[in-house]
Write a structure and sequence with these properties.
about 250 residues; binds phosphoenolpyruvate
Length: about 250
Amino acid sequence: MRRPLIAGNWKMNGDPELAGSLINACKQAVRDHESVDLAVFPPYTLLPLVATEAGGGRVRVGAQDLSPHQKGAYTGEVSASMIKATGATMVLIGHSERRQWHQEGPKLLSAKLKRALDEGLTPIYCVGESLQQREENRTEAVVGQQLALLKSAEFKPHLSEILIAYEPVWAIGTGKTASPEQAQAVHAYIRGILHKVDARISGLVRILYGGSVTPESASGLLACADIDGALVGGASLKGDAFAAIAAAAS
Ligand code: PEP
């Protein structure tokens, strides 16, 4: 019912040579695994090259962020329409590194989500708790708060166009993966929230898990009922590792 999506967040890494070899590995992986979709999120400067190489097939391409503004005097920003013009079709919104280092909060993230949807880019909206929040048993409260914007009249009709990534902050780039049980519990909670937003659509929304996913940890996580794919950082920079994660999803 929900096709698995394995998405690679390259963060501030890569050059044209690496991009070329990674995109070739992705194209081979989708040929090898009919039932899985892939997406890559390179830095802005590599988007035109990667989107051209991907060629509009089952390897989708997205940006790691976007401006909440349409155009104008916003030095350093990149608009949704500029992203779309590169051939990219997706965008990450609310990644914890943006929340943490750029103080991105609900108001700004709502504006970014609206820009993405207005422009026809498919957003992956990222949520997740810090280690302290988990230790204080506040995981559901934090994730619930981060998802609250989806309940607004503005986004409710667009639920089917949005993907969610649950990425516990303590698992990102740390080598500590959430156990399948820990991840599934939060994914089920997220699915419950989506159900309250739109019971008809909630079963169709893909919820990805992110946080130090490797070929070794992928199959246990991807076997869980509400885990519909992965958002992968470090391992997405190695073609063979990313392809092995795709294989685990098939
Ligand atoms: C990420 O950046 O979204 C991520 C999950 O990174 P890593 O896989 O390296 O933890």
